[in-house]
Write a structure and sequence with these properties.
Elements (H helix, E strand, L loop, with lengths): L10 H9 L7 H11 L4 E4 L6 H12 L9 E4 L3 H14 L7 E4 L5 H8 L5 E4 L1 H10 L9 E4 L2 H6 L3 H10 L5 E5 L5 H10 L4 E4 L10 E7 L5 H12 L4 E4 L3 H13 L4 E4 L5 H12 L5 E4 L14 E4 L6 H8 L9 E7 L4 H11 L11 H22 L3 H13 L2 H13 L99
Parallel strand pairs: 1-6, 1-7, 2-4, 2-5, 3-4, 5-6, 8-13, 9-11, 9-12, 10-11, 12-13
Helix pairs in contact: 2-3, 3-4, 6-8, 10-15, 13-14, 15-17
Bound molecules: adenosine-5'-triphosphate (ATP) and magnesium ion.
The site of magnesium ion has 3 residues, from helix 3.
GO molecular function: helicase activity
Family: Belongs to the DEAD box helicase family.
Keywords: ATP-binding, Helicase, Hydrolase, Nucleotide-binding
Length: 522
């Protein structure tokens, strides 16, 4: 892989990249950065967590003139949380150059955004709906835009943003540089590309398998009623640093979160019915590690980049293979390893095979962990905590009592009792979750995308032949500093002042669930 020095970037951009902990470029970056620096239009496809943001962010930031006081670049993303996250990454890349960038998304006070726009940002990162609001209010002008990026373009089209995107792109001068990133290349993306890109280079790092190779995948066959117990045991055994548990509906997420909390796990839920503030808070706590388990609907499936997510659990099997790929792609990012488990009820096995076929990856079966294994897992964690305290601190004030106890009692019995106390007994709370209907095999949802395309083979690329045992450049993946948990996790909801009125929230969270039952999902 190329180092970033080899691209001939400005020193200030290079410095920013170094500070971000990036040394070598990822495959998609290696291919797209030189082309983008030449000003070539391009279509990029690559696996989850392989650095697509910097693939367009680096050339974008590199070419912007810091003395510019007009909007010269526009990045469009499907969801608010992605707009915030991408803005954050671009902000970091442009830090030393002094580039001004601004996220613009629904759910945030529009007056506040208008005030921020007065500071003359050069790059706007926005969701299509809110961007159009500003364009109509004449608070955003696209006449001087020279570069446009469409991130997660297929998702934007799935969410019904085609018209909005076309209106927006129609307002940008034709003589511009356009980059489009998409997980899949359905016909409507081709159409969009034909319409708005000029002689684009198609850059895709085609992998043998669709999902990132650093993710160890397994499924566990469980009955609906065993799922919660299975989840608790898995958490006890593996003690994930950060885990995301995906549930199918909002009700499921609420019930599961409450159940986990009752059993003493540090978990919070995330779905589209929460207020912007609640979502912000949950994401902040998850990013800074205040909570260990994020229970979420597919709202968190795509694009979201939280470093340190070691485990993903599909508590409910996802409807679509692409949803599966994006969900598990929340772990195993940036050269780190991750684990993804999927619970499958006996009636859903066929659907699992369908997912395996489409993703071209066999998912091995794993037995339901036993109670004994779970207990052992918990004890190990307690033992590690004890050893950790012993290594770090002097326990002088406890030593007197320790000596006294050891004189009177058997040392093994003593320590066993202490372990028992510290491990804590599982709170015997009855947990009852409302069962979800099984996902029916190969039953395609109503063709909401109007594309008639096949799902198979729709994915792009990734790390090439990187293995589970290597990080970037052969080192372990841990060299990247943990993301600061401040304002990256911004979820928001509700388009105040949106032109759609209250009822039609186009910028709302992702909704990959069957539309027939839309209200319950996401
Ligand atoms: N060259 C690099 N070296 C090390 N880390 C990198 C590099 N490029 C990107 N990263 C980090 O990798 C993580 C994933 O990047 P990013 O979110 O851009 O992935 P993505 O390809 O857009 O994934 P998704 O398909 O899920 O949207 C981020 O934390 C990012 O900072
Ligand atoms: Mg991305």
């Amino acid at each position: 892989m190329k180092t970033f020095q080899e691209f001939g970037l400005e020193p200030k951009v290079l410095r920013a990249i170094t500070e971000m902990g990036f040394e070598e470029s990822t495959p998609i970056q290696e291919k797209t950065i030189p082309l983008a620096l030449e000003g070539r239009d391009l279509i990029g496809q690559a696996q989850t967590g392989t650095g697509k943001t910097a693939a367009f962010g680096v050339p974008l930031v590199n070419k912007i003139d810091v003395n510019e006081d007009r909007i010269v670049a526009l990045v469009m993303c499907p969801t608010r949380e992605l707009a915030i996250q991408v803005a954050e990454e671009i902000g970091k890349l442009g830090r030393f150059k002094g580039i001004r960038s601004l996220p613009i998304y629904g759910g945030q006070d529009i007056v506040k955004q208008i005030r921020a726009l007065k500071k003359k940002p050069q790059i706007i990162i926005g969701t299509p709906g809110r961007l159009l609001d500003h364009i109509n209010r004449k608070t955003i002008k696209l006449d001087d835009v020279q570069t446009v990026v469409l991130d997660e373009a297929d998702e934007m089209l799935d969410m019904g943003f085609m018209d909005d995107i076309q209106s927006i792109l129609g307002l940008v001068p034709q003589n511009r540089h356009t980059m489009l990133f998409s997980a899949t290349m359905p016909p409507n993306i081709q159409k969009l590309a034909n319409q708005f890109l000029t002689n684009p280079e198609h850059v895709s790092v085609i992998p043998k398998q669709v999902s990132a190779p650093l993710i160890e995948q397994a499924y566990i066959e469980v009955h609906e009623k065993q799922k919660f117990e299975a989840l608790s045991r898995l958490i006890d055994i593996e003690a994930p640093e950060l885990a995301i548990v995906f549930g199918r509906t909002k009700r499921r997420v609420d019930e599961l979160t409450e159940a986990l909390q009752k059993r003493g796990y540090s978990a919070e839920g995330l779905h589209g019915d929460l207020s912007q503030n609640q979502r912000d808070n949950v994401m902040r706590k998850f990013r800074d590690g205040t909570i260990d388990v994020l229970v979420a609907t597919d709202v968190a499936a795509r694009g979201l980049d939280v470093s340190g997510v070691t485990h993903v659990v599909n508590f409910d099997l996802p409807q679509d293979p692409e949803s599966y790929v994006h969900r598990i792609g929340r772990t195993g990012r940036a050269g780190k390893e991750g684990t993804a488990w999927t619970f499958v009820t006996p009636r859903e096995i066929d659907h699992l095979h369908f997912i395996e076929k489409v993703t071209r990856h066999r998912i091995p079966k794993k037995p339901l962990p036993s109670l004994a294994e779970a207990l052992e897992g918990k004890q190990k964690v307690t033992a590690e905590r004890i050893i950790d305290v012993m290594d770090k601190e002097m326990q002088n004030e406890f030593k007197g009592m320790a000596i006294q106890l050891l004189e009177q009692y058997d040392s093994v019995n003593l320590l066993a009792a202490a372990l028992k106390l510290l491990t804590g007994e599982k709170k015997e709370v009855e947990i009852e979750l409302t069962p979800e209907d099984p996902i029916r095999a190969k039953k395609r949802r109503p063709d909401i995308r109007n594309s008639g395309r096949k799902v198979e083979g729709r994915y792009g690329s990734g790390w090439g032949d990187r293995r589970r045992d290597g990080g970037y450049g052969g080192r372990g993946g841990d060299r990247y500093p943990r993301r600061d948990g401040d304002n990256r996790g911004g979820y928001s909801r509700g388009r105040d002042g949106g032109r759609d009125g209250g009822g039609r929230d186009r910028d709302r969270d992702r909704d990959r669930a069957p539309r027939s039952n839309e209200e319950t999902f996401v």
